[in-house]
Design goal:
Layout lengths: L3 E3 L6 E4 L5 H18 L4 H17 L1 H12 L3 H25 L3 E2 L6 E8 L2 E5 L7 H12 L3 E5 L5 H13 L7 E3 L7 H6 L3 E7 L2 H13 L3 E5 L4 E5 L5 H13 L9 E7 H17 L18 H16 L3 E4 L15 E4 L16 E7 L2 H9 L3 E2 L1 E5 L3 H10 L4 E4 L14 E2 L2 E2 L4 H5 L3 E8 L1
Parallel strand pairs: 5-6, 5-8, 6-7, 8-9, 10-11, 10-16, 11-14, 13-14, 16-17
Antiparallel strand pairs: 1-2, 3-4, 4-20, 9-19, 12-13, 15-18
Helix pairs in contact: 2-4, 3-4, 3-6, 4-5, 9-10
Bound molecules: NADPH dihydro-nicotinamide-adenine-dinucleotide phosphate.
């Protein structure tokens, strides 16, 4: 894939970039390693100061950064603004809490003194996706930099200007040269990076094939990885649920980021007793959404990020139809305009045991399933290769306890949509990946947990 900015709302190529050659990559890896030797000696208060400064820059120039995101991958401008603000929050969160998260932990044993010390590992590679081009990077960079690691960013090839802007923010914040570098390279170079001794570990957010490829390359070198891959999150609505609120939230949870979020609600599993009403209300909501220019403030749904994403999504929809699915609204790309526009789409009656019902739909398409009771709801929710998040709606506390206990996912949200929060761990199980980002768990992923024993 060429490294380029192609406006997904118009199809116009705005800027192309040369990929780094091998000598340029080697020079950046050397710089990262030299920087690490100095950077690891800096104090928490110094790192916190720089990270707070990065948060200030994000807040001051949020409109500029949001515009870049919308231009490169098509998310509505208002959502892009919120994304930049959230990046500032995660910077401030780790600036404040990292010192306590990484303080020595004393453990009483028969030694005169024994404790755990957290030490940085070195250069960590982040292979990042285009869907949250700022947030995904900052939620890696903030804890990694506070822990004393240095960062190498291989961003998705369709968001190069975002990648360069992030490197610039971190440099302007005062972090030393080489503490965080963007590598403009294609995916084919990632395996070589993993084989290079100057790269110590890696994190990847993206598709399953990308995750597998990185994990294989890292595994050959016994290097640690964190993988945050796809999801087909269930959104379960039981009979006692507050239906109106559930429908409003269902719409937001499916349409967030033009439907291209790993934790978007994708499979709507609704109790038979309320299914007719839910379906009617959801259809009404979907049909009121405004599809169009993502720069306009009243746009709810912009274009998909690339023509490939649009094509894949449409193929999945047609495949669902050929297996018995009925389309209530949408169901075809919007061919009356340039760009990668797909309308809000609802599909019902897909047999739940067909392979297509278990795939991830990365776009504004909701699959609706009806179930007789909570047992069937949990069974269907868990009948997925993925296990990222789950949202479930009930006002019955016994049902709520069962959903929390029995749903196979990295996160269960009751009467709310799934969302990431710097204070809580984020990540999946099954084919959604492993490891955690955010919170104390996130910062502990890329450190040497050193046991110290003094007789
Ligand atoms: P990819 O997984 O291909 O891209 C994500 C990142 O991984 C990019 O930086 C990409 O680089 C890189 N990458 C791709 N292939 C490899 C590889 N073999 N080895 C190392 N790195 C690699 O996502 P796509 O953009 O192709 O989207 C396809 C599907 O992935 C979506 O439909 C969705 O299902 C899923 N996805 C999930 C995301 C999530 O948030 N969990 C985010 C994005 C996608 P490059 O851009 O240069 O190819």
């Amino acid at each position: 894939m060429a490294i380029a900015t192609i406006n997904p709302a118009t199809g116009e190529t705005l800027k192309t970039f040369e990929a780094l050659n091998d000598a340029e990559i080697a020079a950046k890896l050397d710089l990262a390693n030299q920087a690490f030797e100095q950077y690891r000696q800096t104090s928490f208060s110094q790192r916190s100061h720089w990270l707070q400064k990065a948060a200030d820059i994000l807040e001051q120039d949020k409109a500029e950064f949001a515009k870049l995101m919308t231009l490169e991958m098509g998310k509505p401008f208002k959502a892009a603004i919120a994304e930049v603000e959230k990046c500032a929050v995660v910077c401030r969160y780790y600036a404040e809490h990292a010192p306590s998260f990484l303080a020595d932990v004393s453990v009483k044993t028969d030694a005169s003194q024994s404790f755990v010390r957290y030490q940085p590992m070195g250069a960590i590679l982040a292979v990042m996706p285009w869907n949250f081009p700022f947030w995904q990077v900052f939620r890696f960079a903030a804890p990694a930099l506070m822990a004393g690691n240095v960062g190498l960013l291989k961003h998705a090839s369709n968001v190069p200007q975002c990648a360069l802007a992030i490197e610039d923010i971190i440099r302007r914040a005062g972090f030393p040269e080489g503490a965080f570098q963007t590598l403009l390279i294609g995916a084919a170079k990632v395996a070589d990076l993993m084989a290079d001794e100057r790269v110590k570990a890696a994190t990847l957010t993206g598709s399953e094939p990308a995750g597998i490829s990185l994990a294989v390359a890292a595994g050959k070198q016994i290097k640690k990885t964190v993988l945050e891959l796809g999801g087909s999150d269930p959104f379960i609505v039981l009979e006692s649920a507050d239906l109106e609120t559930a429908v409003v939230t269902a719409t937001t949870a499916r349409m967030l980021n033009n439907g291209q979020s790993c934790i978007a609600a994708k499979r709507f599993i609704v109790a038979e007793a309320i299914a007719d009403k839910f379906e009617k209300l959801l259809l009404e909501k979907f049909e009121t959404l405004k599809v169009g220019d993502p720069m306009q403030p009243d746009t709810d749904l912009g274009p998909l990020a690339t023509p490939g994403i649009l094509q894949d999504l449409n193929q999945q929809v047609q495949s669902a139809i050929s297996r018995g699915g009925k389309v209530l609204t949408g169901g075809h790309p919007l061919s009356d305009r340039p760009g990668n526009f797909y309308p809000p789409t609802i599909i019902i009656d897909i047999p739940s045991d067909t392979p297509i019902a278990k795939e991830e739909f990365f776009g504004p398409v909701a699959l609706l399933f009806r179930v007789p009771d909570i047992d069937a709801a949990i069974k269907l929710a868990n009948d997925s290769p993925f296990g990222l998040g789950a949202s479930a709606w009930t006002t019955n506390s016994q049902e709520s306890d069962r959903l929390v206990e029995e749903i196979e996912a990295g996160a269960v949200f009751i009467n709310s949509m799934v969302k990431s929060d710097p204070r809580l761990p984020f990540g999946g199980i099954k084919r959604s990946g492993y490891g955690r980002e955010l919170s104390i768990q996130g910062i502990h992923e890329f450190v040497n947990v050193k046991t110290v024993w003094v007789k």
